[in-house]
Amino acid sequence: MIEVTGQINAVRRKVGERVLEAGTARTSTVSQVYDTDVDDLWDAVTNPERIPRWFLPVSGDLRLGGRYQLEGNASGTIELCDPPKGFSATWEFGGQTSWIEVRLSPEPDGRARFELEHIAHVDDGMWNQFGPGAVGIGWDQGLLGLAMHIATGRSAPDEVGPDWSTSDEGKEFTRQSGEAWFAAHVASGADEATARACADRTIAAYTGEAG
Fold first, then answer.
1. Whole-angstrom Cα Rg for the chain
2. For the chain, how many structural domains are there in total?
3. What is the reported pLDDT for 113?
4. For residue 55, what is the domain's CATH number?
5. DSSP string spanning the chain?
6. How far apart are CA 178 and CA 190, in angstroms?
7. Residue 180 belongs to what domain range?
8. Among 17, 45, 111, 195, which is most buried by a count of CB atoms within 10 Å?
9. pLDDT of residue 21
10. What is the pTM of this model?
11. Average pLDDT over residues 82-105
C-alpha cells in the first residue's frame, strides 16, 4: 500500500513564468526531500542502471551534449551537467520541445532535496487545455517512484507501474495530485474557473474516467 496523501503532501509544487529568447514560457516545479545525501541522490537520478528503478528505462549518451531516450516517453539533449548540483536537458515529446532543469541541494539535517522545473512555451496547446497538471501529475508519479527507490533500494516500477496507475489507489493518487496542481495553478494567479477546468480535464485524461 502507498501512503498516497503523505506522498502528495511531501511534495512542493509551484507554477510560474520565465522569459526565454523565443518568448514567455510557463514553469511547473516539483521538489521533495529524501532520506539520503546529495551524492547518492545524484547517482540515483543520473546513473542509467538506477534510473529504471524509479522512473523509466533510459538509453543514449548520458553526458554533456549527449542524447537520451526514455523508453516510450521523451528524448532530448543534455545541455548542462554540474555534478552533483544538477543538470538540464531538452524534453522532446509528441512533436513539442520543452526543457527540464534538475537541481539537488543539501538540507540542514543532512538529507537532500530534489527539485525539477519543467519549462514549456506559453503557446503550447497542452498547457491551454490541461494546465500544469499535464506534466505535473507525471512528475508526481516520478517523485513517488524515487521516494520508494531511495527508501527500499528496490525497483519502484514493479510496484507502481501501469497496472497500479489504473488501480483504485493509483487513481486516487492521480486525483490528489491533480487537485494539488489546481491549487498551485490558482496560487500563481490563474483564473480559478479556468484552472478548475484544466485540472478536471487532466485528471480525467490520466484516470481514463469522464470528468
1. 16
2. 1
3. 98
4. 3.30.530.20
5. ---HHHHHHH-EEEEEEEEETTEEEEEEEEEEEESS-HHHHHHHHH-TTTHHHHS--EEE--STT-EEEETTS-EEEEEEEETTTEEEEEEEETTEEEEEEEEEEE-TTS-EEEEEEEEEETT-HHHHHHTTHHHHHHHHHHHHHHHHHHHHSS-GGGTSSHHHHTSHHHHHHHHHHHHHHHHHHHHTT--HHHHHHHHHHHHHHHHT---
6. 15
7. 4-207
8. 195
9. 77
10. 0.95
11. 96
Among 1-5, 52-56, 63-67, 204-208, where is mean pLDDT lowest? 1-5
pLDDT in tens, 140-153: 999 999 999 999 99
* Average of per-residue pLDDT values in the chain: 94
Cα–Cα distance, 192 to 175 (Å, whole number): 17
Sequence-ordered list of residues with C-beta below 8 angstroms from that of 186, at least 6 positions apart, any chain: 192, 195
